[in-house]
Amino acid sequence: MTPLQPRVAVIGAGPSGLYAAASLLAAGYGDAGISVDVLDRLPAPYGLVRYGVAPDHVKMKSVIRVLQKPFDPAEVHFLGNVPVARDGAGSPGVPLEVLREHYTAIVHATGSSVDRDLGIPGEELAGSIGSGAFVSWYCGHPDFTELDPPLDHPGVAVVGAGNVALDVARVLAKSHAEMAATDIPDRVLEALTHSRVRDVHVLIRRGPQHVRFTPAELRQIGELANAEVVVHDDGLLAAGVEDPDGDRRQRQNLEMLTEWAAGGGSEGGTKPRRIHLRFLRSPVRLLGENGRVSGVVVERNRIDADGRVVGTGMQETLDVGLVVRAIGYSAEPVPGLPFDRRTGTVPNVGGRVVRDGVPVPGAYVTGWIKRGPTGVIGTNKADAAQTVAALLEDLPTLPAPAHPDRESLLEALAEHGVRPVDWTDWLQLDAEEMRLGAARGADRVKVAEMAAMLAACRADAPVR
Predict the structure, then answer these.
(1) d(CA 269, CA 452)
(2) How many degrees, rounded to 5, is the angle at CA 157 between CA 155 and CA 161?
(3) In terms of Cα–Cα distance, which of 370, 369, 373 is closest to 390?
(4) Per-residue pLDDT tens digits for 45-97
(5) CA pair distance 76, 15, nearest whole angstrom
(6) Radius of gyration over alpha carbons of the chain, in Å?
(7) What is the pLDDT of residues 95-126, one digit of tens each?
(8) Cα angle value 416/421/427 (rounded, 5°)
(9) How far is Cα 357 from Cα 32, in angstroms, rounded to an integer?
(10) pTM of the shown model
């Protein structure tokens, strides 16, 4: 690397960050190109694909083959186990201002990982959990290995009308054999195997014509070996719901829901578990006993002439011991950058970070921290390309970093107690997970505990 070669750090090794890294490589900037490092606080790459995609969605995880391409010929350097310090004295990790001394530009791709609250009484009780935390638990995220959700009660409520709500319901309803073939950690598999859950109530505030499920996701709950689907819609489907004009996906959803409502699932079915789709229902209060959830009070809704959801005052109580809210996400502020708490994003124009309307030199964002928690995995590709185009346009005017050599970066990380792992180290962990998978009859089994991940990565080896 020559001293004139621009150095760019991408913070976050999820889809948005890795698409940005690939776009930077494809740009072919100058004779020497651009040196790109992808930093992540975890020892494993792939972010949301690894820790947000349901374990049984193997096809969706295949995007990893695309995301890993820049690492295979070592065109991009992976630096895992590198947390960026939060504001405040004693916060672990490397401060953002230190990283700025080593890079011409930094692209932040840290996503949105904070579960939104329902804002109802009782939400603070044990057994009231956000879907981000619950999904991270069953996907083997090291931050959530100790979550231990209560599965000792036959009833669970899942609040939400999107695919994440169906993911949670499906995982809770699946059999041991179905889940053992996935990559979930052994500890999670054991908890699900011994679960006493029999009824999963999905609470959907609007009617069946308004759900945001994809037809493929909805179809999966009707194909479960272990669970019936029971539709509670107050007779709407039987009476005939207005066909959504031109919306093929919604039409497919309505066809499935109408079939199930007419007898595709029942309270007296032969399968041991049931997924209840409860339309026009909103939770208004969580009940507690001895500090933990013991029930949820649900209000029936109606849709008024203006299309608004209005409570009817009619309430019922569901006997549940766990409530999972799947109503969306927000982001945590990025230390050293402006933050809009209303939108949960870093203020930006086309990916350029702006403070009080003025661009912050060398600071860029992509993914959910840029646009909010919307879109699918593939949405990040065009989003990253837009941000990289802005970065490349600015690059000739950006000052060179004070310490551009790689050795000085590693020294700075060491000074802040950060011991990174590289791509070769990750491949050691990858191989260990595949070995564990072979022993269980799966493609892989995730290593979830941070200490075990680092041990498998051989973190004591020199970073290459």
Answers:
(1) 43
(2) 150
(3) 370
(4) 999 999 999 999 988 899 999 999 989 877 899 999 999 987 654 568 999 99
(5) 15
(6) 24
(7) 999 999 999 999 999 988 889 999 999 999 99
(8) 170
(9) 33
(10) 0.93
